[in-house]
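It is worth pausing here to work through a concrete case rather than discussing structure prediction in the abstract. The textbook approach is simple: state the sequence, then state the predicted structure, then interpret. We follow exactly that order.
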Amino acid sequence: MDAKTGPGADAANGKRRNKGELLVQSMQELLWERGYAGATPAEVQRRAGAGQGSMYHFFRGKAELARAAELVMGEDLKREVEQRFAGRRRLLGRIEAYLAPDGVVTRGCRLGRLVQEEEVAGNPELMAPIAETYGWIQERLEEVLAEGVEQGELRPDVDVRALAVTILAIRQGAYTLARLADSDEPFRQSAKAVSQLLETARPES
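Step two, the predicted structure:
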C-alpha cells in the first residue's frame, strides 16, 4: 500500500485538517474578543495548540485566516436567523424573534463589529464575507415581510425592502446601545418599537 494513500496518510491528513479548523476557531474567538487588530498570529496559534509559524502551512497570512473565520461566522449567523424564524407563522412573532437578545449582546455583534476596524474596512477580501452575510439577512427579512403582505398582515403598499433595511439597522444599532448600557434592555425596547411600527402598517379592518 502506498504510504501517501494508506491509513497512516489518512490519519495525517485528518490531523492536518483538524489543525486548520482549530486555527479558524481560534481566530473566530479572537475576532470577537479583540477585533482584527488584536488577533495576532502568535495568539491564534497558541490557542489552537499549533506550533510557531504553523498558521502559514494552512493560510497565506492573517487576512486569509480571518476571511476563513468570517465565512464560518457568516454561516453560523445565517443558521441562527433561520432558527429564529422557524416555527413561527405570524409576521410579528418572526420579527420579534429576530430582534430578541441572545444572551451575549453586550459583547457586540461578532461579525458586524468588524466593519468598524480600518484594516477590515480597507480590505475588500475581508469585507466581502460580511457584506454577503448581511445582504443575505436583508433578503430573508424582505421575504418574511413579503409573506406578511401576502397573508394580509401588512398593507400592499408597504416598501418591504426599506422596512427590511430598517429592521436590520435597528438590530445592529441595538448591539452598540447594549454594550454602552451593559444590558440587553435596548434590544427589548427596539423590539417593542418595531412591533408598534408594524402595527401601523397593518391593513385597515
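Step three, interpretation. The two ends are 76 Å apart (CA to CA). Residues 7-14 have pLDDT under 50 and may be disordered.
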